[in-house]
Amino acid sequence: MAETHGRGPSLRDLLREGTVLLREAGIEDAAQDAALLLGFATERNRLDLLTRADECPSAEAIGRYRSLLSRRCRREPLSHLIGRRGFWKLEFAVSRDVLDPRPDTETLIEAALEIVPPPERILDLGTGSGCLLLSLLDEFPASFGIGVDISRKALAVAQDNAGALGLAARAAFVCGDWFGAVAGRFNLIVTNPPYIREDEAPLLPPELRDHEPPEALFGGPDGLDAYRSILAGAPAHLASGGTLLMEIGAGQAEDVMALARAAGFASLARRRDLDGRDRCIIARLT
What we know:
Blueprint: H1 11-24, H2 30-42, H3 46-51, H4 59-73, H5 78-82, E1 84-87, E2 90-93, H6 106-112, E3 121-125, H7 131-139, E4 144-149, H8 152-164, E5 171-175, E6 186-191, H9 206-211, H10 225-233, E7 238-247, H11 253-262, E8 267-272, E9 278-284
Parallel strand pairs: 3-4, 3-6, 4-5, 6-7
Antiparallel strand pairs: 1-2, 7-9, 8-9
């Protein structure tokens, strides 16, 4: 990358500029986001930004950075700007066609790792970027998995991630509505379904409401539509002794567990996320 030294703003100046702009735009982690965007625009890592703070990047890099800052000020998600997001132990390509992987969803991975013996066949309903399925396949090297999504654009992202992570040979992706395109039984079914109530849309942060696919967010008037469909089909697709793991939203544990009992699931448990909120329902038929 061409650089100019001694002319124009330094990396330190640009980091300060970005932090101020993002803070004024209401970005909670303004300094962190500014550093990530500056590193991305200038092809510098976090250590470079500290040890080479007096360096003056090229005019082209500065232009890229300021363009990214402008988009972030309009509340475009950081992951969309840099095109990737870390989840569990891996890094995933993301776009506005998939739900942005979030740390809360890692609660399902933690629960899955406690399953003995490790699941041979895994089904991920509403796979999106493939973050759940591919993280599980990375943890379980003898497993095979299928990711289902109603969005072909989302499936394209998941397939690209499988290839980039070297997991394509053990992963298949199909387009369908929950179990409609799936045959056979699975030792583990995982899902992070849409669970936000429709009337909660105005309360969502702009990053979520305006930039992520609504079909991956909203679960009907009470937020439970997807759970009803999943729980109706899951018993016919679980192998003997199989486990269903479902991410849930705040305050939904009792309602989802009641739906699971009505669907025939006799063994139910819940797992909390890092904030201490019920985040995952663990369901087994016996």
